[in-house]
Design goal:
- The structure holds two protein chains of two kinds.
- In chain A, 39% of the residues lie in helices and 24% in strands.
- In chain A, the strands form seven sheets. In chain A, strands 1, 2, 3, 4, 11 and 12 form a six-stranded mixed beta sheet that branches.
- Chain A is α+β, with helices and mostly antiparallel strands.
- Chain A contains 16 helices and 28 strands.
- By secondary structure, chain B is an all-alpha fold.
- Chain B is 65% helix and 0% strand.
- The longest helix of chain B is centred in the C-terminal third of the chain and has 42 residues.
- Chain B is built from eight helices and no strands.
- Classes of the chains: A alpha+beta, B mainly alpha.
- Chains A and B meet through α11, β19, β22 and β25 of A and α1, α3 and α4 of B.
Chain lengths: 636, 236
Amino acid sequence: MKIPLPLAGASQHKEPRVVGIDLGTTNSLVAYMKNGQPRVIPGADGDPIVPSIVYFAPDGEIQVGKEARAHLFESPERTVYSVKRLMGRGLDDVQGEREHFAYQLSDEFREVVRIKMDDRLYTAPEVSAHVLRALKARAEAQLGETVDQAVITVPAYFNDSQRQATRDAGRIAGLEVLRIVNEPTAACLAYGLEQRREGTVAVYDLGGGTFDISILKLRDGIFEVQSTNGDTRLGGDDMDRVLAEVLATELRSGRSGVSIPQAELTERLRIAAEEAKKALTDAETTTVRVELPDGDWTRELSRSEFEQLIAPIVERTLEPCRQALEDAGVSTVEIDEVVLVGGSTRVPLVRDRVARLFAKTPHCDLDPDEVVALGAAVQAGILSGDVEGFLLLDVNPLSLGIETYGGAVEKLIARNSTIPTSARNVFTTGVEGQQAVAIHVVQGERELAADNRSLARFNVHLPPMPAGFPRLEVTFLVDENGILSVSAYEHRSQAEARIEIRPSYGLTDDEVERMVIESFEHAESDLRTRQLVEARVEADQVIKATEKQLPAAETFVRTGLMPQSDLDRIRRTLAELAGSVASEDHHLIRDRIETLDAASRGLAALVMDKAVKEAIEGRTLEEAEQTIRGEEAPEV
Amino acid sequence: MTEQEATNAVLAGTAREGHSLCWHCKTDVGDDPLCPHCVKLQPLGKQSDYFTVMGLPRKLSIDTRVLEPVFHALSRRFHPDMYRMAAPRERMIALENSALLNQAYRTLRDPFDRAAYLLELERGREGDRRDSPPQDLFEEILEVQELLGDYRLADGSERESLRPQLNQKREALQAEQDERGRDLTERLFKQWDQLQEQSQPPTTEQKAPLLDAMRRIIGERAYLRRVLNSLVEALR
C-alpha cells in the first residue's frame, strides 16, 4: 500500500487550495492537508469546532458559531440551529418537527422550506452558506491565501435533493464544491490513512440529526463501499428532545407559572437536556439545572433512567445496520473493525449496543467530532494530487427509478450500486406530433412512485414526429457525488434533446444564482460595516488623546514655543474628524485621522521634549532614563 | 430492421460515431484507453461490452478473485477523482467510462447476471418477458400458491400448524433453485467456454442450444425466486 508522501517544497501551492469541510447538524469544522497529514483548522480561541448556529440580529448583522449560540436563550426565534434537518426538504417533510424549532417557518413555500426572519425569508442553503462562509474565512486566515474550493461531506443516506442543497449552499458561500463525500466514507478515509488497515470495516455514524451505517472494504488503498443505510431523521437531537419533553412536563406540573416566554423555555430545557446527556457519558448521575428568573429548577437524573428514555432511539439504528450487512452480503463475523463517528456515539448505551450487535469492541481512537472533516481534507488531497494511491469508490444509497403508467416504478439503478453509474432507457411518443416526453424520477425502494421520494420532473423536447416513431435515448447518470444528471439523444433526428428540469425539493439554477449575488452583496456590506466600525474606534481614540494634549498646547503657545496658527489648525482638524465620525464613510474618517496626525506633529515633538526635560531635571541619568522609558511617546 | 433491432443498435452505440481517432489530437487510437500521442483518456463506449471493458474474453467461467484487482486497477485509471485537473471533455469521458466499468464489474461478478448479460449480447435485449414456471415443478408451485393462500386467510393457531409445511416447501424449492444454478454454472458455462476455445469462432447453430438452455434456466430461476420470496415473506 502506498504511503502518501509530503510534497517536496510543500510550502508553495501552485494550485488553488482545496479544503475539507464537515457541515454537521450540530457542529462544523474545516480541515486541510499539511505535509501529508490532515489537520483541522482552529479558530482564534484554539477550538476547531464551529457550532452550526446562525443568529440574525435585528439590525441585520449576522453571527455564526459560538457568538450565535450565545443568543439562544434571549432570542430563540432569531437563532437558527440544526438547519441541516431542513436541507432538501419541503414543508410537509418537516411538519412533525416544526414545534420543536423556536424559529418560524413560512407556510407559503411548500417545496423548499423557508425560515421567516423579520420581513425576509431564508432557505436552508442560504443559512448553511453563512456557516460555510465563516469556515472559509477561518481557513483563509490560517492559510494566508484565498480558499475557493472545498470538499463538503453529507450523510451517506442523503438523497439527491439534499445533496444538491448542500452544493447550492457551497455556491452561495462562494465555494466551488469539488466533491460531495459521504460522511462514513470520509471518516473511513481518515481512519484508513491513519491505521493503514486492510479488511472489512463498518462505520457507525450517529450525529446530531442523522444516522448512517456503511460497510466498506479496504484494500490496497482503495476504499470500496459495499453497502450503506441509515436514517436522515435520527440523531442526538432526538435524545435531547425526548429528555426535554420529560423535563417540560415535570416543570409545568411543579411550578404554577414560568415567567419567561415559551420559546425561551423550550430552548433552556433543550440545552439543559443536552448538557445532562453529555455529563452522563462519564458520570452515573447528574443534576439537571434549568436557570429561571424566579429560581433555578433542578432535578437529579441517573444514567439508567436516561438510557430507558433513549433506548427506542438507539434501537432504531439497529435495523439499518442489519439491512446494510445483508445488502453487503457479509455477516457480523466478517467485519474486521467497527469505527464510531459523531458526537452521539459517546453515549455509553450506543457503544454497548453497537458492540453487542457486531460482537466486538468498536474503535474509538479517532476523535468522533473531527474525523469526518479530516477525511474530507484527505479527499481534497486526493483531488488535488497531494495524496497519492488512495481512491474512494462509493455507492448510491437509494434506488433510482421512473414513474410508469399506473403510478408504478420502473427501477433504473439499484441501491448500493457503485458510482458513477448510469442507465439508459429508450422512449417514444404516443401522440402524433408530440413534442415533449415527461419523465418523473423518484428515489426509494417502494413499488409505487407516490411512496418514494420525488426527485425531479424532466421535460424532454423533441421535434414533431409521427406517434411511435421517435427513438429517444435517455441516459440517467449518477456521478461520483451521488447526484443525478439526465441527458437525451433523439436518434431519428440525430440531435441532443433539450431538457427542462423541475426539481421537486430544490432550488432552480436561477434561484441559486440570485442567492449567490445577494450573498456577495451581503459579504461586501459586512466588510464595509467592519471597516467603518474600526475607523470609528480609532477616530475616538485619536480624538481623546489629542484633547488631552490641548491644555499643554495652550501653554506652549503662551510661552512662545508653538505658533497660534498651529493650535488653530489642530483644533480645526480635530473638529472635522469629530464631525466625520457620524458619517458612514470610513475612507473619510481615515483621511481626517491622517490630517489631524499631520497637524499635531509639532505638538507631539514639543510634548516629548518637555517630558524629557522634566525627567532629567534634578535626577541622575538612570532615574531620568527610567522616567522617560516609563513615559511612552505621547499618543497622537 | 425490426423495432427491436433498431433499439438494440441504439443501445450498442453503433448508431453513433464509430471512429477510433483521438478526440483531442486526432491520432488513431484503435482500442487503447489512452491516446498514445497526447495521453488523453478515450471513451470506452463505442465498441465495448462488459467483457472487453474488463479485458476478458467472452467466457462465462470467471474467477471473481481475479476480477477484483482488475476492477481496482481500471478504477484508478478511469475514476473522475483522478481527472479533476483535466479539461471538461476529458472529465466527462472519465465519468462515462467509470459508469460503464462499474456496471461491467457489477454484472460480471454475479454468475446469473453474467449469463443474462451474455444472452443480451448474443441475442439482443428482450422486451417484456413473461417468465413461465418450470414445467417439472408446475404441480409443486400450484400447491405452494394454494398453501400460501390458506396461510394468509388463516388465523393464529391455524397458521402455526401450516408453518412446517410452508418451510418444507421452501426448502424443496430452494434445493431446486440451487440445482438449476449448478446446472447453469457447472455444465452450461463449461460447454460455452469450450465453444469459445475451439479454433474457429462458434457458429449460430452451435451456440443456439446452449443459449436456449441458459435462457430457460434464467427464466425459471427468476420465477422461482419470486415464489421463494413470497414464502420467505409469509414465514417472517
